[in-house]
Structure formats: C-alpha cells, structure tokens
C-alpha cells in the first residue's frame, strides 16, 4: 500500500471550513478525467487562490460536507482537538450473476485521502498562507508522482470514479485498509503532527 504523509498545520475554528474545502476541491479537481471547466476560488483569510471544478454538484457536495464536519465538531465543543476527514474514490465493476444473465455493480475502493485536522484556539494565528501553500503543492506532487494505481477509465463522466467524503472515528471498522491504524497512531502520539495521507 502506498502511503504519503505531509504536515498539516493547526487551524482555528474560523479557518476550518475554508481550508477543508480548498483541500477537498484540489483533490477532486485532480481526480476528474472528463472535460472540466476550471474555476478559481479564494481562501479569503489568507488570500490564497486555487482551482476547482466549475460543477454545481461537486460544489454542493464539498460545501455540505465541510459545513457538516464543522457543525458536528462544534456541537462537541471541538473535543477532541484532533479529528479527520476522509475522501475516498471507488472503481465501478460489474460482476455476472445467475449464469451470466444479470450483472451486479460493485464498488472497489482504490484511493483514500485522510485529512487530519488539529485545532488551534482563536487566539493563535492558525494556518498561514505559506502553510497552506506547502500542503497544496505537496498534494499536487503526490498526485503527479502516483498514477500507476489509477484504474482504467470506462466512461466519459466528469468524475468517472465515485467518491465519498466522511468523518471517521477511531472506532470505525476500516482497519482492513490500514487507515485507522495509521490515524490512531497519529491521534494518540504525544508529538505526532497532523498529516495528510494517501493510501
């Protein structure tokens, strides 16, 4: 399994949604293989410009999940101070059933991105423009250097591989992919910095 780690600096509660949306849009934009209309967007608090897909359904999905993540953490008064978001990509495969007379769709997961966030207080400076730019460029390098695992394209859709954005807890039963073991060690380690992982 291929795993890449990049430092992700602390964010304040006010920075959280914008930073999360920037990272999710960056990953999705680079996992679109159809004809895409690029659209510039800005992380306002540090005036950082990035490119995302000019697509209403992607915009809605990312915005909703970022707000849900923030709201769910806010309800718990940002406790624990470290939580993660996962964006996972699946491949559609079709398996024959009933002696070949019918086909059943299966989803095979081929890529996971784990975005662990560590929260700073509002009094702290949180994430700077340079911090986000470093993570942003690291994501792009990782994407450009890791292409052999991408499944073959079987359709012309903008995002040919279904994706899911979710918020794991240490109790989630996804150890079979090695995600929670890595995430658990990061969350428990006394000096471990939050990281972004590609598995």
From TrEMBL:
<dbReference type="Pfam" id="PF07855">
    <property type="entry name" value="ATG101"/>
</dbReference>
<keyword id="KW-0072">Autophagy</keyword>
<dbReference type="InterPro" id="IPR012445">
    <property type="entry name" value="ATG101"/>
</dbReference>
<dbReference type="GO" id="GO:0000407">
    <property type="term" value="C:phagophore assembly site"/>
</dbReference>
<protein>
    <recommendedName>
        <fullName>Autophagy-related protein 101</fullName>
    </recommendedName>
</protein>
<dbReference type="GO" id="GO:0019901">
    <property type="term" value="F:protein kinase binding"/>
</dbReference>
<dbReference type="GO" id="GO:1990316">
    <property type="term" value="C:Atg1/ULK1 kinase complex"/>
</dbReference>
<comment type="similarity">
    <text>Belongs to the ATG101 family.</text>
</comment>
<dbReference type="GO" id="GO:0000045">
    <property type="term" value="P:autophagosome assembly"/>
</dbReference>
